[in-house]
Predict the 3D structure of the following.
Amino acid sequence: MNRKVVYEVKGVSVANFEPKNSSIVFKIKYTKNNTNGELIKTFNFSDAASLVSEVMREIKRKDNVVDLDEEDFLADYQVVDFVDQEEVEEKLLNFFNRIKEKVRILKKSTNASNYMKLFDEIKIARMEL
């Protein structure tokens, strides 16, 4: 049975931000064949590009169900497609890098009002695709 699976990333938002632990938790919303799904991913402010590729890989693997057929090895073949994959990856990369830059500035901030402003911006950050 050949199946086509179409994924579409709908948006990303900050689920939790802990400046003391240098970590941020993102909630990535997507659809798989028009069925809603969600992925929770922690970012420790390392390489944003590797986070984007990891997110895309995990979305593909998250709901993957394999029924092995001993007689027909192509029976479980499935075509996986992302809607506007390159554009989505670029937008996610820019979003993660903007958050990373705001956190860098936040950590160096000595002004309380600027600190709280940046903290609030990071806590409510979201991007719809």
Notes: Residues 3-128 form one domain. The chain has a mean pLDDT of 87.
